[in-house]
Each structure stands twice: as structure tokens, then as C-alpha cells.
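Dear colleague,

As promised, here are the two records you asked about, laid out in our usual form so they can be pasted straight into your sheet.

NAME FIELD: protein one
SEQUENCE, THEN STRUCTURE:
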Amino acid sequence: MDEAAPFQMIGDPMEKLLAGMEFYIHLFEDPHLLKSCLARTTVQESAETNPKLCDAANVCIANQEKRFKARLDEACKSRLLRLDTDSLAKLWIATIQEDPSRSL
């Protein structure tokens, strides 16, 4: 889904970053779209019973975080900004991986 998303065609790194974030925000705002992450569910359901499967699912989430961090790094570099992109990437992934059934 990420590789085929329209924001991937944007050349400016900052605009691409912001458009990518907007893409996911709008995706999760759509009430008709089933929102679920197989990797997150696998981690939750297999943590105690199948550590190998849990680890493999965690790799998927970690790769998602790395891709987002790379976009953050490029955007910051393009604007000569110095930010803690590692922490921001972790925060973004934690936010979009949140289980909506646990929301208040």
C-alpha cells in the first residue's frame, strides 16, 4: 500500500513526508474502512505462545518505522533542520499502530 500511494510521486522530500502523513490520517479517518494491522495483531496474539512469529511480525513494524524515519531524514535534510527523527518515527509508528478498540 505504501509503495503505490500517490504521495510517492512527490519530488520534494518535505512535501512527500507531509503528504504521506496526510494519506495515513485520511485512511484512518474513513469510517467505511476496516482498520487493522496484521503485524500488530500477530505481535499481540503470539507474544507468549509463538516467539518466532512474534519476532517476525515485529520486524515488519520495525521496517515500517525505518521507512518513515528515512522520509523524516530526507525532509529535514532538504530544509536544513535538525530533529530527533528516531524519536519522531517511533512516535508516529506507535500512533498509527494503536489499537482503535482500546481508544477512549
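NAME FIELD: protein two
SEQUENCE, THEN STRUCTURE:
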Amino acid sequence: MSNTSPVNPFSPTAAYAPTVDGSDGQMSGFTKAILIIFLVLGILGIFGSLIAVGQLIIGSAVSANAAVPADGDGAQAPNINLNVFPGALAIQIAMQFVGMILSALMVISGVMGLKHRISGLNLIRWTAAGLIVYKVVEQVLGVIITFSMFDQIKTQALEQMNKGPNQPDFDMGQFMDIMLYVGLAFGILWTIGMIVLYLVVFLHAGKQAVRARFH
């Protein structure tokens, strides 16, 4: 006769009873770290998207009024057209709203995951997949818009500089070209890093050993 007493499902320790695979029901430190990172990045992403939308709207308004003289000598303020191709501005704003939605899903799934809910883990997995696609589209669009805007930025900057009394002793146009490619390289590396992170999250959240610790 066995002396093992039945487990009371309503006891405080029931939630941490061993699962069918022999685990104790508690998530690993790596899983918890991923959930926290996802949650923090989601919060930062929401604020970042809101700021970006504000900058685009304000920048567009400033660009529309840039024909007004910047000072008393008749000089014109730089006029940077943010709508570098038909619908470019609208696409950028729409991308920020999509990013905001994905960031909100990151926050929701992170919170649900920390509560050991399998639905939160599922949401994290598919949000990570969506973020991979989003990052690729965002980077491609960013490169296209950057190159489209660079010529007008460079031309107007050099014109303003040539009007000044002090001229640099180096080729400013070449310096701006170098900075453009450095900035693009940094942006691409950052995007690759984020894609790797989201891919790790997607694969980790799909492991059976990880999913067995959620309910």
C-alpha cells in the first residue's frame, strides 16, 4: 500500500507541482530574462514611436513653411522635403503606428508570460516573428528615404556653408558622404542585432521544454 497522499490542487504549492515532463513548473532564468527584455523594449518602443510620429508631423509643417526668411539678411531656412516620393511621409507615419502596435503586443505578451500563461508565450512568439518582418521593411525603407533625402540635405548644407566667412580646410561634401555611410552601417548592424534577438525569442518560445513550464 502506498503512503503517498494525493496532491491538493488548491494548495499554495500546487502551481509549482512537477509537470508531466518532470520540470518544477518554474521558468528558467534565461526565459525570464527574455520576457523582461521584451517588456522593456516594448515600453521603449511605444514612446519611441510616439516621438517619431511627432517629429515627422512637426518636420513636415516646418518644411512647408521653410520659404520664410530665417533672418533679416534675406537668407532662406533649409527646406528639406520629407515627402521624398509620393506617399513617403504617410508610409513613415504608418510604419510608426505599426511599430507602436507591435510594441504594445510586446508589453502585453511580456506581462502575460511573466504570469506563466501559455497564451502569453504564444503571443511573444508570433510578435517576435512580426518584428523580424517589420525590422526588415523598416530598414529597407529607411535606406531608400535616407538616400533620397541626402542629396537635398547635402546641397543645402554646402550652400549655407559657402555663404559663411569661415570655410573648412577639408572637403565637407566628402565628409558628409563618409558620415552617411557610417550612419547607415551602424543602423544596419543594429537592425541585424535586433533581428537576431527576435529570432532567438521566436525559437526559444517554441521549445517544448520551455512551453511545459507555462499553463
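A couple of things worth noting about protein two: The mean pLDDT is 79. The first helix runs from residue 29 to 64.

Best,
R.
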